[in-house]
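Protocol step 4 of 6: record predicted structures for both targets in the notebook before any analysis. Target 1:
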Amino acid sequence: MLRTRVAGLVSGATDGEVTEAEILAGGGSLTALGVTSLAFLRLIDTVEEEFGIVLDLDGPFRFLDDLDGLVDQIAELGGGDGGHG
């Protein structure tokens, strides 16, 4: 459920240019799917607000370009149920 929820947030950050279905099926780089740097900024804000967490962007944040990595990061920070379903 968390994975689907985050995919929806990613799609929303792109104003629907990348669909939730594409994100869930992509299994790789969100950038390769067409998520732009502006969409990533929107996504960071949305994720932090939605889940009440702060993403650590000081270190390597490659997790942000991968749906499963982002879901894992959210779960690790206590912002989700930890599942990929």
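Target 2:
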Amino acid sequence: MNLTHAQLGQEYIITGIDTDDEELDGFLFTLGCYSGEPITVVSQLRDSFVISVKDGRYNINRDLAEAISI
């Protein structure tokens, strides 16, 4: 299951990043998105997701959300 199917406010554990793009992998890693890290979807508006990872909140698009497996 990827992040687009997550329920708002529920904490999940990232099980992997599914993308073939190294630049995208690196960007998600800088946000703290890597296997074993807790993640929460705070809100969703159309194709935009506000996520909480570590001590930060970030706005990501649907493509990034689909790449994050939980």
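Step 5 preliminary note on target 2. The longest strand covers residues 38-45. Helices lie at 22-31, 62-67.
Proceed to step 6 after PI sign-off.
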